Amino acid sequence: MLDFNQLKGSSKEKGRSVIGIDGLSRSGKTTFAEKVKAQLDEEEIASTIIHLDHHIVERHKRYQTGLNPWMEYYHLQWEVKQLRDELFRKLTTASSLTLPFYYSSKDECRDEIINLPTDGVVIVEGVFLQRNAWRQYLDYVFYIECPRKTRFSRESEHTKADLGKFQQRYWKAEEYYMDTIQPLSKADQVLFT
């Protein structure tokens, strides 16, 4: 599945490589990230997984802002520039990161520390991962391609009941990403599920 020696050769900094796992919602990114980590564990290679969904902003910053719902999701769900500066730019040099973690139960963000391996791999997984502000900081990117029908079937029944939200918010943002960024062509490897 993963040739760590190839990744080491492409690393920007000796000792640490950064793997990106991109794909649309419910495509299987988290599951694949765990499989990559398990393989690295077997090879006794230190690794850390960073989930972009842990770093979204509070609801008032991403809902009912006056923008179209799909624009809120694509442009406001994350503090794109802040994550570029405080996460992506530091992935190969910092020993730790201090990032805001989102807690949905209280709709709040709290700063927490993520420790990074000195010699090993950082795995970053999340939707829209190859946007222009972030892509250059990733040494190797997997894109998980999964049909919309399959992805939608993985949602809870309660979530699927609000089809309009998917049509106006999520799917339009996904289409924008696919059309403007063309992530399949920019990924180092595309996996079909």
UniProtKB/TrEMBL annotation:
The keyword Kinase applies. GO terms for molecular function: kinase activity. Signal peptide: none annotated. This is Uridine kinase. Residues 18-152 form the Phosphoribulokinase/uridine kinase domain. Pfam families: PRK. InterPro entries: P-loop_NTPase (IPR027417), PRK/URK (IPR006083). It comes from the Bacteria. It comes from Pontibacillus salipaludis. Keywords: Kinase, Transferase.
